[in-house]
Write a structure and sequence with these properties.
Radius of gyration: 24 Å
Distance between the termini: 52 Å
Largest sheet: none
Structural class: mainly alpha
Number of helices: 11
Order of helices and strands: HHHHHHHHHHH
Length: 285
């Protein structure tokens, strides 16, 4: 039995598909190559610089040994301040979009503006807070740094809260309303409880994003060589210390910069893994 020749159209499609598959695979491997290289360099350089002094001593003067204790403290305080500022506003805004505004003109306008804020460069946010807070008060401060990070966290929480609430089936809302509950009680006692995993995931993803931001802190919190708990004064933070130490001519500062980068990377990685393992979104069928 003789074999039928392949249709030219089918053969052309198969060749096109193979070329597209090869190009897509090559692009993926090219991107992964640089990512693996960056991670490998950070791990090898940072892990070799880890020591107990990194977490127990403050940032040193030039030519001396030290750690990043005050920078870790400053970053933790400003991230906490950003969570306090951005999370309630983001959840309330996302609730309005999903439960009250829905597809109204105002809601769609807010979604459009929020998408712009979500993709805005962080340095633009830093400049905005600089003009709003730093030039008004006349000095850099931890408050300005926390506010800048909160402005970056806010659109992430708004988007994830909106999407998490819209995943909840309407039957739950209708059941609550049928029992005579007002809408705010249905949202507060039924919808929030069902969407808590998605909302918490959004907050943690926002924290992961702001943990390594440097540009907004350069214009707001700046840095502090010493231990400071005064939020109205310049405050040390890990991203700015990494930037300044990496640009310095001292080998000991370079080692601290690599160690700080390793800790920040490990923190973001642990946060991402925790989100995927413990806060998996629920499916409603």
């Amino acid at each position: 039995m003789s074999r039928q020749p392949m249709n030219p159209i089918v053969r052309r499609r198969q060749i096109t598909n193979a070329i597209a598959l090869v190009m897509a695979t090559g692009a993926t491997l090219f991107g992964l190559l640089w990512l693996v290289w960056i991670l490998w360099t950070t791990v090898t350089q940072g892990a070799s610089a880890l020591s107990p002094a990194l977490f127990t001593q403050m940032t040193p003067p030039p030519g001396e040994e030290g750690g990043l204790l005050n920078a870790f403290y400053g970053s933790a305080v400003m991230i906490l301040l950003a969570i306090v500022v951005g999370t309630p506003i983001g959840i309330l805004a996302g609730t309005y979009l999903s439960e009250f505004g829905k597809t109204s003109v105002l809601a769609e306008t807010i979604r459009f503006i929020n998408d712009i804020l979500l993709s805005a460069p962080s340095i633009v946010v830093g400049l905005f807070i600089y003009e709003l807070v730093v030039t008004t008060t006349g000095h850099f401060s931890g408050y300005a740094g926390g506010l800048a990070l909160g402005m970056i966290l806010l659109p992430v929480v708004v988007r994830t809260t909106d999407e998490a609430l819209r995943l909840i089936p309407n039957q739950l809302r209708e059941a609550g309303l049928a029992l005579g509950l007002p809408q705010w009680k249905v949202v507060g006692y039924v919808i929030y409880r069902s969407a808590s995993t998605g909302i918490a995931t959004g907050v943690l993803l926002g924290v992961a994003r702001i943990s390594g931001e440097t540009a907004p802190l350069l214009f707001t919190a700046l840095n502090n060589q010493y231990w400071s708990t005064d939020l109205s004064a310049p405050m040390a933070n890990v991203p700015v210390v990494i930037f300044q130490y990496a640009m310095s001519p001292y080998d000991s500062w370079h080692a601290l910069a690599w160690a700080g980068a390793f800790v920040v990377t490990a923190f973001v990685l642990a946060l991402s893994i925790a989100v995927r393992l413990f806060l998996r979104p629920r499916s409603f069928k």
